[in-house]
Amino acid sequence: MQLLKALWALAGAAICCFLIFVIHSQFLKEGQLAAGTCEIVTLDRDSSQPRRTIARQTARCACKKGQIAGTTRARPACVDARIIKTKQWCEMLPCLEGEGCDLLINKSGWTCTQPGGRIKTTTKTDHH
């Protein structure tokens, strides 16, 4: 009988330790991104001007070596760092499928032109 009680106590302690380990592992992973992924942290929209919406977005990325935070298909993404350094924005495919991409004259951003003629302009700002 004593042996049975000892086994139950041991099993209970093992289960308790396992649960603590699982909870602790999940707690450490929370807030971490997988390598090569991004998430939107903030998104603010200002529609106070007629026929114009200004959107400001902040993203957090965990990019692999040689990559940097950028935009692909209108979503935050890790892209080749060379694209950002040379400001060849359209090479990261920032527009949605079916839209045309053009660099702004001063290379401060790009435009995405939809088939119907609507134009979305994106300018890059640095936040260190």
Question: In summary, what is this structure?
Answer:
This protein has helices at 2-29, 81-86; strands spanning 37-46, 54-62, 67-72, 75-80, 100-103, 109-113, 119-123. It is of the alpha+beta class and 128 residues long.
Notes on the structure:
The chain has helices spanning 2-29, 81-86, and strands spanning 37-46, 54-62, 67-72, 75-80, 100-103, 109-113, 119-123. Helices cover 27% and strands 35% of the residues. With 128 residues, the chain is an alpha+beta fold. The protein is globular, with a radius of gyration of 24 Å. It folds into 2 domains: 1-32; 37-123, no CATH class. It contains 2 helices and 7 strands. It has a 3-stranded antiparallel sheet, with no helix packed on it. It has a two-stranded antiparallel ribbon with strand order 1-2. Strands 3-4 form a two-stranded antiparallel ribbon. Belongs to the TAFA family. One of its GO terms (cellular component) is extracellular space.
